[in-house]
Design goal:
139 residues; alpha+beta; N-terminal domain of TfIIb; GMP Synthetase, Chain A, domain 3; 2 domains; three-stranded antiparallel sheet; 3 helices; 6 strands; elongated; OsmC family protein; OsmC/Ohr_fam; KH_dom-like_a/b; OsmC/Ohrsf
Amino acid sequence: MQVRVKWIEGLAMLGESGSGHGVVMDGPPDLGGRNLGVRPMEMLLLGLGGCTQVDVLLILHKARQTVLDCVVELEAERAAEDPKVFTRIHVHYVLTGRGLDPKRVEQAIRLSAEKYCSASIMLGATAAITHDFEIREAP
């Protein structure tokens, strides 16, 4: 896997993925950024959310669970001193579907966290990661 980050100006950067996609990142205004894009640490957290969501959806699909919507909400705390690594991350899944089995959902989340999600396992080296979920029945 390869990516490239090109400096634009100030603290603005263009991240280019090996798959040909781009994303603008920027620093906060108090450090000289112009708030043109997400912060690099936010990108890490977004990566964790995307990685685990893919895992959970694939596992539930294989378990023949009918998922119609899935939102992963993440909340993180960082160390006060440099390096300001994540110290705590909470991952909350909101799954909407028809007849979703809570045990299957819990198992999918556990498998993602403990076996499949590279981002979760990597970030878990510095942060305590917790998970919970809610199931909403589709009309």
